[in-house]
Amino acid sequence: MPMTLPALPYAQDALEPHIDATTMGIHHGKHHNAYVTNGNKALEGTPMADLDAVEIIKNLANVPDDKRGPVRNNVGGHVNHSMFWEVMAPAGKGGGAPSGMLADAITKAFGSFDAFKEKFAAAGAGRFGSGWAWLVVNADKSLSVVSTANQDNPLMGKAIAGCEGQPILGCDVWEHAYYLKYQNRRPDYMAAWWNVVNWSKVAQLYAGALAANAWYEVKKDAGGKWMFNLKAGNGEVVLTSESYASKDGALGGIASVRSNGLDGTRFERRTSAKGEPYFVLLASNKEPIGRSEMYSSPAAMENGVQAVMRACGATHVEEVA
Questions:
Q1: How do residues 226-274 score in pLDDT, each as one tens digit?
Q2: Do 40 and 70 reside in the same domain of the chain?
Q3: Domain for residue 26, yes or no?
Q4: CB 277 within 8 A of CB 298
Q5: Which domain range does residue 54 map to?
Q6: Do the beta carbons of residue 150 and residue 131 sit within 8 Å?
C-alpha cells in the first residue's frame, strides 16, 4: 500500500512559541510530503511496494540496488517524521518529565533525567550536518542515546545507520526543523524542544518495545463469558482478566491494561487465605482489571509485576477457541 502523509495530531500553531507555525507548515506539508511522494515513486514496481514503511527500512538489503538509496532516504524520512509528530504535544500535554517505569529506566541508564537530557542534547548538537538524535531500547531492554545522519533510523541496523535499537523518542536536527526561528542556534532549538515532548506517547512506545513477542489471548471461560490472558514473549501467562459479558468488554479491558500497566501504583499486593502472595491490577477507578497467579514468595510476586509492566504494551490480540 502506498505511503500517505499523516495528519498532524494537533493544530499547526499548537507548539508555539517553541516551534513556530510557519516551520511546522513547511516541515509537515512540504518536507514530509516530499518524502512520501518520492518514497512511493522509488518503491513503484518493486516487491516491497505493498509493505509497511517500517518493515521496508528494516530490510533495505531486499530493495533493488538502483532503488536502495532513494528508498533509504525517503522511506526513512517518512518513518522518522511520522514518529516525530507523535512524540510532541501542545502545552498541557507536552513537556515536563516522564514518570513510572520509563522514568526509572532513564535514571538507571543515565543516572538522572537531567543527565539523560544533557546526553541527548549533545547527540543532536554534535551531529555534523543533518540528522536525528534518538532514545532507543536495546535488545537487552536497556536504554541508549544514539544519533543518525540524514534520514537514517536505528531500525536500519548498525551496518547502515551506525547504531541500532528500537526508537522511542527522536528529535529532528535538520535545519528545516528549526532554522526560521532559531537560525544556526541548534542547541537553543533543542532546549526549547523539551517543552513539547509528549512523554505519555514516549511511554507507550517504551511499553511496546518492552512487549516484543508478548500478546493478548482472548477467549470464553468455562461459564461462557469473555476474558483474556496477557502472555509474555515466552508464552507464560502473567495476568488473567476478570470476566466480561461481551468480547468488546474484554477488548476494553485490554485497553485498560495498556493504559495502567506501566504505573506501579496500580498494582495492589494481596495475600490469599493460604498465605500466598498475588497482585491485582486496578484501573484508575480502583476496579480490578486482572490478577496474577499465586506466588511462592513476595520476591517472585514482584518479578510478576515487572513481567506485566514489560508485556502490557503488546499490540497483538488473538482470539482462541
A1: 999 999 987 899 999 999 999 999 999 999 999 999 888 999 999 999 9
A2: yes
A3: yes
A4: yes
A5: 21-210
A6: yes
In this structure, are residues 160 and 152 in contact, taking their beta carbons and an 8 Å threshold? yes
Q: In what order do the strands lie in the sheet with 288-291?
A: 267-271, 277-282, 288-291, 237-241, 226-231, 215-220, 316-319
Contact between residue 35 and residue 74 where contact means Cβ atoms under 8 Å apart: yes
* 84, 187: one domain: yes
Instruction: Please name which of 115, 43, 101, 81 lies closest in space to residue 266, comparing C-alpha atoms.
Output: 101
pTM: 0.80
DSSP 66-96: HHHHHHHHHHHHHHHHHHHHHTB--BTTBSS
**Measured distance CA(73)–CA(132) in Å, rounded:** 13
Cell numbers found for residue 163? 547504531
d(CA 96, CA 103): 12
Query: How many residues are there in the chain?
Result: 321
The CATH number for 176's domain is 3.55.40.20
Give how far Cα 6 sits from Cα of 9, 18, 63, 105, 234, Å: 9, 22, 24, 30, 35
Contact 239, 291 (CB under 8 A): yes
Q: Is residue 11 part of a domain?
A: no
CA nearest neighbour of 37 among 5, 85, 83: 5
Report how many domains make up the chain. Answer: 2
pLDDT of res. 211: 86
Hey, what amino acid is at 286? K
Residue 129 in 3-state DSSP?
Answer: coil
Q: Which amino acid is at 227?
A: M
Residue owning grid cell 482478566 = 241
Distance, CA of 181 to CA of 24 (rounded, Å): 11
Residue 163 DSSP one-character state: -
The pLDDT tens digits of the residues spanning 11-33 come to: 999 999 999 999 999 999 999 99
Tell me the Ramachandran region of residue 252: left when phi exceeds 0, alpha when psi lies from -120 to 50, beta otherwise: alpha
Write out the three cell numbers for 222.
468455562
Report residues of the chain scoring pLDDT below 50: none
Q: What is the CATH number of the domain that holds 308?
A: 2.30.29.80
